[in-house]
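Example 9 (inverse folding). The structure is encoded as follows.
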């Protein structure tokens, strides 16, 4: 069935036609610049002729003249009278740009645009008419226009003969006018409509799952009915043995009348199950169709890149060709829009940083022109995008030297770094190997913006480089942001979801495998110590009680990898994402919302936010100890907090107390001790006096003034043994004052026993 175009005005129809025809002109000109193809010339001649005729119908005389001049140039080239050299292609592309800009204008703004751009339009028209008299391309970059050669006809000025290239940011595509929205079909934007359709499709799937509780109730009723008929059978047998014919006949009648009920239940349960399957199939089919509507071919988001690469390379005096592969690969329209900027940045970097100048390529034995390949494909349920070039690549030794020069690592540490570790430094803000500052790069804006953009879409990016042979970027993204494969967990009695791509591993950690060091808890995994954090605390849901086997979700990478302790793990679900109302703004640690199959709402967590929240808690020293399994079943060992800035003293006291059977946590200064005392359940605090950030006297004061901790015994162990020092400590509220120079092992243990008794409750 053909599309209904009756709702569009003639100007709107012209815009749609101009969009497709100008793209054909751009693609054809770029292809002809590489290799003369008669078929491409024929296609471009038809495109220019079509634009000329359509523009005449809507009265856009400027476009008629531009298209007519371009058509004449293509005819001359078709007959061998004109060679489309790079300088001539520059002029023709400038004409295409003007056609695009003019076509996107509203009728009311046309005259103002013609008035402000009059000189540029006349110059471009004259250049197209005199295109045969343009000089051959020169070795230098065309940013400096060559002088015009004498011609029988009026010679255009230098800026017309070879138009000065616009800024690189303007090369990607002509700036669209606000009026382009008028081509959207009446009734709303397609994106908004598909979002609403997806929401309704998700609700349909939830409604289909609502049949399940009813079917389960019918199944229970069927089982109860079967038990009833079995009891009646037993009753009939018992009556038959007693020989009472009347009772035997009555029992037979009851069984006979009950048979239709049995068949009724069986039939209706089967019908309901079949109905549920149909509903689920329809609901899933609807979701799939809506998702298909949101998918766009990869080429829709990258069609302007060849022109951008070509023009940028020309401005740098280079010859670079972009080869796009996998143009038909389907991508969610939202992802396609969001990856345009990162891909643009990578391609510009490849042209500026990667591809060498022609003379350098000749010395390296390479082809004069550089090649960049941009490829998209589906793999393992994900979208894979690769960008690789045949340029100079990045020398890892230059990165190593830059890391040392910027004091990001010592020379010894840098020497041990692998190639992959060195490449990660390119993602750091303001990390650049470019020595000079240009308009294109070297301004302190590096690959960190690419890395952040990909991470925001739950994707990953990886870099590889071979010096002298090229640079390779691997980007992995979800196929769609509309349906997210998520791990659903329980935290504080509520359901939360984490995107599967952000979850490294799901584990159950025995409580005895959890260790505590300086009030921080961790467990050992594959030779690394992974910090444990309560999800309830991070999400500010209070403290929850955990069982002996802790459900742990590992998130993050490298030094920012943590084990998130949850209440329970429900399993993996495919969730239809519902954006949060803008009135809420950006909620901390939350990315979006969804509904489970039973209609229960669930918040989808922002893992990047979670990691920042965890880092903040660590910096503040506010992490709580994981709750014990149960108040009655807590370990009987008493807990002591040792606060001392001396590693030797801490370890000596810890070993003494642990050997006597106490559970010991340590803190490195008064501030760390205060945070630990507030978050832990301790029977005794042993503290030094002279410590950074907060001394022991202030710590004692805070503990004794706290309404929840004022009964907690505190022992001061200090080198200060003067009477006034002892009096100062006891006046602050300390329960015991012991000097480090006078006590032996048993002295400390006896003092602890005086305050809290034995090591067990």
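The amino acid assigned to each position is listed next.
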């Amino acid at each position: 069935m053909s599309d209904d175009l009756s709702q569009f005005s003639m100007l709107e129809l012209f815009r749609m036609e101009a969009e497709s025809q100008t793209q054909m002109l751009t693609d054809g000109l770029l292809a002809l610049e590489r290799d003369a193809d008669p078929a491409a010339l024929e296609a471009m001649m038809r495109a220019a002729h079509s634009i000329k005729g359509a523009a005449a119908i809507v009265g856009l005389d400027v476009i008629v003249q531009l298209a007519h001049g371009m058509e004449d140039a293509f005819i001359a080239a078709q007959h061998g009278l004109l060679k489309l050299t790079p300088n001539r292609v520059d002029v023709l592309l400038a004409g295409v740009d003007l056609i695009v800009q003019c076509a996107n204008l509203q009728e009311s703004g046309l005259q103002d645009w013609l008035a402000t751009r009059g000189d540029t339009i006349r110059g471009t028209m004259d250049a197209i008419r005199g295109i045969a008299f343009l000089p051959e391309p020169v070795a230098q970059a065309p940013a400096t226009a060559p002088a015009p050669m004498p011609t029988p006809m009026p010679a255009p000025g230098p800026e017309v003969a070879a138009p000065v290239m616009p800024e690189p940011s303007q090369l990607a595509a002509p700036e669209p006018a606000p009026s382009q929205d008028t081509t959207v079909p009446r009734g709303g934007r397609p994106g908004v409509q598909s979002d609403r359709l997806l929401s309704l499709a998700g609700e349909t799937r939830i409604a289909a799952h609502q049949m399940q509780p009813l079917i389960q109730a019918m199944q229970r009723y069927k089982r109860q009915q079967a038990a009833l008929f079995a009891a009646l059978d037993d009753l009939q047998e018992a009556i038959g043995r007693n020989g009472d014919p009347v009772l035997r006949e009555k029992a037979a009648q009851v069984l006979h009348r009950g048979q239709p009920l049995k068949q009724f239940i069986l039939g209706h349960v089967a019908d309901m199950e079949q109905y549920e399957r149909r509903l689920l199939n329809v609901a899933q089919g609807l979701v799939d169709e809506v998702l298909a509507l949101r998918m766009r071919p990869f080429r829709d988001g990258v069609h302007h890149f060849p022109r951008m690469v070509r023009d940028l390379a020309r401005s740098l005096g280079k010859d670079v060709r972009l080869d796009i592969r996998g143009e038909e690969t389907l991508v969610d329209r939202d992802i396609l829009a969001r990856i345009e900027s990162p891909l643009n940045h990578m391609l510009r970097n490849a042209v500026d940083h990667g591809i060498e100048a022609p003379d350098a390529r000749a010395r390296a034995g390479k082809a004069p022109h550089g090649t960049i390949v941009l490829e998209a494909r589906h793999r393992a349920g994900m979208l894979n995008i690769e960008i690789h070039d045949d340029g100079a690549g990045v020398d890892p030794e230059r990165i190593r030297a830059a890391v040392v020069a910027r004091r990001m690592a010592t020379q010894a540490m840098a020497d041990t770094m692998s190639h992959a570790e060195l490449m990660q430094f390119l993602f750091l803000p303001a990390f650049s190997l470019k020595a000079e500052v240009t308009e294109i790069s070297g301004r302190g804006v590096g690959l960190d913006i690419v890395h952040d953009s990909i991470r925001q879409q739950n994707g990953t990016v990886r870099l590889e480089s071979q010096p002298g042979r090229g640079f390779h970027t691997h980007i992995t993204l979800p196929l769609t942001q509309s349906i997210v494969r998520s791990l659903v967990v329980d935290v504080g009695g509520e359901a939360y979801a984490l995107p599967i791509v952000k979850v490294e591993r799901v584990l159950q950690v025995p409580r005895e495998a959890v260790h505590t060091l300086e009030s921080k808890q961790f467990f050992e995994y594959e030779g690394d110590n992974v910090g444990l954090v309560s999800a309830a605390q991070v999400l500010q849901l209070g403290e929850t009680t955990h069982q002996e086997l802790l459900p742990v979700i590992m998130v993050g990478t490298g030094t920012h990898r943590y084990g998130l302790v949850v209440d329970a793990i429900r399993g993996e679900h495919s969730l239809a994402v519902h954006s949060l109302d803008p009135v809420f703004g950006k909620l901390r640690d939350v990315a979006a919302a969804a509904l489970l199959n039973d209609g229960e709402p669930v918040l989808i967590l922002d893992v990047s936010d979670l990691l920042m929240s965890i880092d903040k808690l660590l910096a503040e020293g506010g992490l709580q100890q994981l709750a014990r399994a149960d108040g009655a079943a807590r370990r009987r060992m008493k807990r002591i907090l040792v606060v001392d800035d001396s590693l030797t003293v801490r370890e000596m006291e810890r070993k003494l107390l642990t050997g006597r059977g106490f559970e010991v946590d340590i803190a490195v200064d008064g501030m760390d001790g205060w945070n630990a005392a507030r978050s832990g359940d301790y029977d005794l605090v042993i503290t030094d006096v002279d410590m950074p950030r907060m001394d022991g006297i202030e710590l004692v004061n805070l503990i004794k003034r706290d309404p929840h901790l004022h009964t907690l015994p505190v022992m001061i162990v200090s080198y200060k043994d003067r009477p006034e020092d002892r009096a100062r400590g006891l006046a602050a509220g300390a329960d015991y004052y012991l000097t480090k120079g006078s006590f032996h092992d048993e002295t400390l243990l006896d003092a602890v026993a005086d305050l809290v008794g034995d090591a067990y409750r």
